[in-house]
Specification:
Blueprint: H1 2-58, H2 63-85, H3 90-114, H4 123-159, H5 161-170
Length: about 180
């Protein structure tokens, strides 16, 4: 009787350690995927900020649009910093998604305003900034798919019946997709 209890206790202990290690590995994969998403988001903030600084030279009557882009860039930068510490936590990622959507909207408005503008003054600079933004958007899309894929795998592992029993004890919670 005592030997069978020890065997069962050992099996439960090893199962618990295995579940913990698996969840940690999957959560670390989310952090790795976050790095692929953070870099293009940071580039979008930087290039958008440069566009907001230079834009009033090309369209002085649209100062409000450029100011909105600058403000949304600052909010997105703040959300990026908050998410960097724990990219697997739901609240910072949700706040980041909102900040990103607002920044993307402001950026889209500015790009639509600048699209028909042809100016000798700063044309090369404008084209370079727009090319940087387009490249960063493509990289963001790739990073977003990777990040969301890792989050889905982690959440599926977390939802499995035997692992779910220990997840709260270990301090694991559902992650949020971007």
């Amino acid at each position: 009787m005592t030997l069978s209890l020890l065997v069962i206790a050992a099996l439960l202990l090893f199962w618990g350690l295995g579940a913990y290690n698996r969840l940690m590995r999957l959560r670390n994969a989310i952090s790795g995927a976050w790095q692929q998403l953070e870099a293009p988001l940071t580039e979008l903030v930087d290039a958008g900020g440069q566009l907001a600084e230079a834009g009033p030279r090309w369209l002085p009557q649209e100062g409000g649009a450029f100011e909105a882009l600058r403000a949304q860039g600052a909010e997105l930068q703040t959300a990026l910093k908050a998410t960097s510490a724990t990219p697997f936590a739901a609240d910072p990622v949700a706040q980041l998604a909102v900040a990103h959507a607002l920044h993307a909207s402001a950026l889209q408005r500015v790009l639509a305003l600048l699209d028909p503008v042809v100016s000798e003054d700063g044309e090369a600079e404008r084209r370079t900034l727009i090319a940087r933004l387009r490249a960063a958007q493509q990289q963001r899309d790739f990073g977003k798919k990777l990040f969301n894929g890792r989050v889905a795998i982690y959440n599926e592992a977390l939802a499995e019946v035997p692992t779910r029993a220990l997840a709260g004890l270990y301090g694991f919670h559902d992650a949020k997709s971007f």
